Amino acid sequence: MRYFGETILRYREDILHDLDALMRIRSVSASDKEAAAQALTYMLQRAEEMGFRTKCIDGIAGHAEYGEGEEIAAVLAHVDVVPAGEGWSVEEPYSLTEKDGRYYGRGVVDDKGPAVVALYCLKALKDEGIMPKRRLRVIFGAAEEIGMDDMEIYFQKEPLPDMAFTPDSEYGICCYEKGILQLEVYAPCHDGTTLTEFHAGHAVNAVPAKAYALVDCTENEDHQLQRFADAKPGSYDFIYTMDGLQIVATGKAAHACIPEEGLNAAMHLIRILAADFGQLVLGSLCSFLDDAIGLETDGSALGIRCRDKESGALSVNVGVVEINERVARATIDIRYPVTADSEEIFSRIRKRASYEGLMTKLLNHELPLAMSDKAPVIRLLQDAYQTVTGEAPNLYATGGGTYARTLKNRGVAFGPVFAGDPAKIHEPDESISTENFWRHAQICAEAVSRMAKA
Questions:
Q1: In angstroms, rounded to a whole number, what is the distance separating the alpha carbons of residues 443 and 388?
Q2: Domain check: are 118 and 131 in the same one?
């Protein structure tokens, strides 16, 4: 054995078995908190069966623990997921499928795969008879995808670890995480006429790949609309119903932290409808979305565009749009640079929305993370990565939000996605190459072993 991380490979079959079982629990926290709690229970039960101490906190978070001591080192992972959505190339998204040298399924990368691997890292230490100098924990959460209240609740009752990492991003080491503002813009009622219904998206933190509109229009307007659609990005289907013309727009899903890599079906459909009918008959919400955001992802029209050298540019994503006779609402996800003023950003959005008679509600705010590259945990992770790969990891910033920002500068995001491997997190066909999955497992085990001995 050249390094400890290699020991994790002995558990290949067991890891894949447990991962498949976990992925079959449809733990979409946004719509089924009971299923998310069930996924947490499954991991804690597996940990108990391996001989670890476990603790569940309010059915929303918990940990498996190995070792003794005052200090704590931890790996944080979440067992909830976003909805699978449509457009998968595998038969069952909520299971583990191996195909063409890749593992597929919702959560295989984000974050069920890393969660199972982290637990087996503890088992590898225990089976080798290595007693750590401090308590080692794998901390599981069941509400990461809906604002990370799980870790807030957990750390109200349990101490912060002295050092930690969360395998919920990319390699190398994420020293900066942008701040996250998630808000809802809404009207007391839908005040449009031609547009009678509009539905798009399932989660605030994902670019919607599908959007549906129901319009009451003339045959001439219908033909003009189809001509507009033919010349625009995305694909559009026109279906005649008893209630009017239904338009189904198909774009490309992406994580809200990289909206420019997707094609927002909602915003493109609104743009086409506005071009044909004008904004007024679409209602105040669509008028605001088309005018103040449109097809931009940098916040220019909202007056919030900014960037810094540490973490890069601000991004904007419209994740959910829901309009019918009872409601008119949209959710917006903003990732802002670590040096930006979040209060000023929110104030400008609220002021701009008020011009259209809309109200604004803050759904979630996560402060940015900025950690020194001289921190001991950074050096430990650098050494672990280099031991396994033979290369030094880069230090980077992300717009993604991970548990690292709950650690108060005691930990960072580290893995599991490698450059050049299209993981498609929050998209159909979420996957990772089998080679990279096991490379990550070795890096994780090496890092945990070093936290045990540091």
A1: 6
A2: yes
Which of 344, 366, 388 represents a domain boundary (last residue)? 366
Give yes or no: residues 412 and 337 share one domain. no
- Given pLDDT bands bounded at 50, 70 and 90, which one contains residue 185? very high
Q: What are phi and psi for residue 436, nearest 5 degrees? A: -70, -30
Beta carbons within 8 Å of 432's beta carbon, 6+ residues apart: 102, 103, 108, 109, 113, 416, 417, 421, 423, 440
> Which CATH number is 411's domain given?
3.40.630.10
Give residue 283's Cα distance to chain centre.
Answer: 31
Within 262-341, where are the H helices?
265-277, 284-288
Read off the CATH number of the domain in which 348 is found.
3.30.70.360
Q: What is the pLDDT of residues 73-132, one digit of tens each?
A: 999 999 999 999 889 999 999 999 999 999 999 999 999 999 999 999 999 999 999 999
| Rounded Cα distance, 105 and 434, in Å | 13
Quote the CA–CA distance of 194 and 130 in Å, as a whole number: 69
Q: Answer whether 186's CB lies under 8 Å from 361's CB.
A: yes
Task: Phi first, then psi: give them for residue 431, nearest 5 degrees.
Answer: -165, 170
Q: Which domain holds residue 83?
A: 4-176+370-453
Question: Does one domain contain both 423 and 317?
Answer: no
* 3 state DSSP class of 116: helix
| Cα 272 → chain centroid | 29
* pTM (2 d.p.): 0.80
Q: Distance (Å, rounded) from C-alpha 79 to C-alpha 27?
A: 7
Asked if 46 contacts 22 with a C-beta cutoff of 8 angstroms, the reply is no
435-454 burial: b if 16+ Cβ within 10 Å, else e: ebbbbbbbbbbbbbbbbbeb
Query: pLDDT, tens digit, for every residue of 190-212?
Result: 999 999 999 999 889 899 999 99
Phi-psi region of 178 (alpha: psi -120 to 50; beta: other; left: phi over 0): beta
118 plus 257 within the same structural domain:
no
**CA 17 to chain CA mean position, Å:** 24
| 144 and 223 belong to one structural domain | no
Rounded Cα gap, residues 116 and 445, in angstroms? 12
Of 445, 443, 447, residue with least CA distance to 377: 447
